[in-house]
Amino acid sequence: MAKIFIEPIEQKHIQRVFQAKEEAKREDSRNYLGFSGIGDECMRKVWYDFRGYDGTVIPGRVKMIFDLGHKIEELSCHYLRLAGYKLEHAWPDEQMSFSAINGLFRGHPDGVIHGVTAKPHMLEIKSANKNRFEQFKKKGFAHDQKYHAQIQLCMMYAGLERGFVFIYCKDNCDIHIERMYYDEKIALHFYDVAGTIIASPHPPERGHKETDIKCNWCHHNMRCWSNMGIQKRKTCGTCQHLKSGIQMKCDKKKVDIVKWGLSCEEWKLNDC
Ligand code: SF4
Ligand code: SF4
Hints:
By secondary structure, the chain is an alpha+beta fold.
């Protein structure tokens, strides 16, 4: 078989595509603490994200992997409908949206699925590579605390007692399905964690040691361990004048912060 050589000129085009994606403005740039993040093992990372601290730049190729996950979610909805299940508030229809703690804590479940049993189920769709897919099959969906927190909170806000998890393997299109029950204790625990993160004026304790691989991957590594983060976004969450609480206040202007994620000319970096 003839060998294909990738010439520098082709490399240039490849880089051009990755670069364009890297620089593209995040379409889903969020100004709130998401149900999907609250189960993270490191609360400090969750706090940095919530406050709007800039992390290291996410490479275009990695952002494209996230896009692929969204496309798989759409395909999965299509396959479930094809199999005769009735989906509500699922792609391409408008998703449900839950908001708590003054709008600072929010979640957007993938939908509600009917036809699994007599009762409706909260639908959660995930995609995974083969290794991770096999882990879900072996250890169960709930072994991932982040995902588990998310679906439990969604069930709490939707008033549903059951969850239906659909995991799609990106390598070979295999499917893993799990059903689960609502657990009030878990949902309330993560609701409390969210309240603590939102009200905290300082970054919480680090969740890992510096040598942990999870810190290696973390986009806040430089800020967390070397206090060397570069801050381009200038919003209230990263401002010295912010007075934290469930109701955020501006100490400079003596007003309540009614919209999270905005800025003003008095912004001064809270370098922590
Ligand atoms: S670098 Fe490690 S300890 Fe620091 S925020 Fe990230 S995950 Fe947490
Ligand atoms: S000074 Fe401006 S940016 Fe800072 S907290 Fe007040 S309103 Fe927000």
